[in-house]
Predict the 3D structure of the following.
Amino acid sequence: MYTELLSKTGPYIEEARFRVCETFFNEKDYVSAADEALKFRDEFPSSGFAPGALEMARKALIEQGLSAKAAELSGVLTRDYPASGPSSRIHFDEGQKLYERGNHKEAVETLRRVTANLHDIDSARAQIMIASSFLFMKQYDQAWLEYSKAVYVYPEFPEIVAEGYYGIGAVQIKQGKKDEARKAYERILENWPDSPWAAKAALELEKLK
């Protein structure tokens, strides 16, 4: 069946070929998945499925232990399809590593590529890391702005909003604005009392008494 699909042409051939690659991957036939996904990208480089095919090939190579080849594909993805979802997720992973290592300036530059091209939980987390990076760099006005973006751009993610308000409170404490910080923490307790950020906000409120 796969051989027949791979040899056909027609208006839906791109999707059909991509689904074949997907099937190989789901069946854990990672060699065939990588081979067919790379062939797909070579034959249909401008297809909307091309970034997904490259990402599938990259993951299939990782499953085979071919990390160096997978890293090469990461470079191809971010170079040739910079605004794609797969590229943005590569930037998210890179930005998170930079953030965790304390390389905050570089983390911000990398994570901006995520928030520019995605609107999902990964981009929401990226926004929080951007804000926290500015807090660590003691750029408090910018940190406040970035936490505010997390609050207002991602209202569909309550945990992100709660964390954003917690960050706003932390910034305002650093700026000596204790009354404003108190309001931010109280807002968390009022609106998201079951959030882990509520417990942290309660502790900060105790310190402000």
